[in-house]
Amino acid sequence: MKRSDLTEKLLDIKREKGWTWKHICEQIGGMSPVMITGALLGNHKLTKPQAAAAAKLFGLTKSEQAMLNEVPNRAEGVAMPPTDPLIYRFYELVLVNGPAWKELIQEEFGDGIMSAIDFDMTMERLPDPKGDRVKIAMSGKFLPFKYYGATGNAQAYGYKEE
User: Residue by residue, what is the 3-state secondary structure of the chain?
Assistant: First the structure.
C-alpha cells in the first residue's frame, strides 16, 4: 500500500462515519488539529501513541498504523501553482505579501528565516456581521543564517547586527 492509498482509505472512513476533523483530532489528541489533519492527509507523521489511537479509531492494520508514524514525502504530487482556489489564495498571499514579510522579519530579527518545522499554527472562526472571518496565526522559531566554516570573528548564534 502507498501512503496516498492510506489517505484515501482514511477519507472514505471519515465520510462513511460522518466524522468531522474536529471529532477525529479530539480522539487522537496530542498536537494541533492542523498537524493531526495534515498527518492523516499524508503530510506529517503521527507519534507512535497517536498512530495507535488513529489505528484504533479507524480500524487500521498494524502496517497502516506504522505508516502513520513514518516520515512522509510532504506535498508529494502537488501542482505548482496550486489549482484549488482556497489553497491558491494562500499561495497568492505569499506571492503578494512575501517580499514585505521577508523585509519586516529580517529588519526585526536579522538575516535568517522563520522555521516551518519549529512552528505552530492556530485557526479560528471570527463572527462578523458582514461575513465570518478566518483567523490564522503562525508562530515559527527564527533561525538566523549561519556562515558555515566561519572562524575567529564568527558571531554567536542568534546575533543581530545593530
Answer: CCHHHHHHHHHHHHHHHCCCHHHHHHHHCCCCHHHHHHHHCCCCCCCHHHHHHHHHHHCCCHHHHHHHCCCCCCCCCCCCCCCCHHHHHHHHHHHHHHHHHHHHHHHHHCCEEEEEEEEEEEEEEECCCCCCEEEEEEEEEEEECCCCCCCCCCCCCCCCCC
Please tell me the total count of domains within the chain. 2
79 assigned to some structural domain: no
Q: Which residues are catalytic?
A: 89, 92, 115
User: How do residues 16-60 score in pLDDT, each as one tens digit?
Assistant: 999 999 999 999 999 999 999 999 999 999 999 999 999 999 999
Each residue's pLDDT tens digit, 50-96: 999 999 999 999 999 999 999 999 888 788 888 999 999 999 999 99
Which CATH number do you get for residue 45? 1.10.260.40
- The count of other CB atoms within 10 Å of the CB of residue 67 is 22
Print the domain residue range for 105.
Answer: 85-144
